[in-house]
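step: validate -> pass
step: tokenize input -> pass
step: predict -> running
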Amino acid sequence: MTPGVVGLSHISLSVRDREAAKRFWVEVLGFEVFNEEPTYCFLFDRAAGLAVIMSNHDQTVSGTFDEHNVGLDHLAFAVSSVETLLSWQQRLAALDVPHSPIVETDAGHHLNLRAPDNVAIELYVMKPEFAALLGLTDDAIPVAATHS
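step: predict -> pass
step: emit ->
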């Protein structure tokens, strides 16, 4: 039997400008600074139970994120409803953060934006029909609660 995982623990990002990245994650996405050391910054979103850790690896990080290279394509954060997604769209516009319009697919609704260093972020709400296809119920796992 394959051992299981229970969820996502944290995301660790290599960034060129840790201060700019920290400002984005705190001021735009609402994370709080939990711990900051010379080598890293640990941010936390209590509602999501998700940590983002950023390091500039002693200022050796170069280039920008590119989803066309091997590795990460994007980070997708679940939101609770289309109404919440609309609130995010308004917030991003008020903060002059470039973002896509809200797009509907068979699986859900999403909008996309970029963090510093061009890191691709998606804000996503799953449709109940798609959640049902995956066998998710409102009380199954935290992400399952992201559909209305």
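step: describe -> The chain has three helices and eight strands.
step: cleanup -> pass
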